[in-house]
Amino acid sequence: MFLGLLIGALGGAATATVLTVRGIRAASRAGGRPGWLRAAALLAGAGAVAGYAWGLLHLGYAVMRAEDGGTGSAPSGPCRDGGSQLASQVNGYDVDLLPLRFECRLSGGGRYLTSSVPGYVTPTTIALGLITAGCGALAATPARRDQPPTAHRDQPPTAQPDQPPTAHRDQPPTAHRDQPPTAQSDRPPVA
What we know:
It contains four helices and three strands; from the N terminus they run αααβββα. The model has no long low-confidence stretch (mean pLDDT 79). The chain has helices spanning 2-29, 33-67, 84-87, 121-140, and strands at 90-97, 100-106, 111-113. It has one domain. The protein is 46% helix and 9% strand. With 191 residues, the protein is mostly helical. The chain is elongated, with a radius of gyration of 33 Å. This is Integral membrane protein.
């Protein structure tokens, strides 16, 4: 159990580092609202993963103390924090990964939480996870435009419904449907 928690904490630290680097790079290249939202999502995600990894590290330390045998190993180290009266009734412990917590089981069937994992870890991780999801969703949605799109240089301008089409500067003029075909065109007029 301890080794799994330690590997999870190290993996979380590595993931948080990668997300932080990608978030900083995205912030330096941000061009407009979607770029900034993407950078914020990456950095908040890095914080959420780092917070969870920090909690796993605390939980791993509590498990290491609980599994340490030898003189004075009963009750387990983290379960002694509840006081001598509760500690005398402890017969085991449980570890929860969501939310991160270390619980001591009592012989009478009850349980109590220890302070092994700091109380700020779960709320901070949840808050940063929600910020990550919100910024990511907003960055992925296309931005609405209040103005009509403008034509680019390489695209021919579009014709208005009541006006004849205009030719692109690199193309010969085309015949309008009300005009007879010119000598340049071998095609019949479009009706």
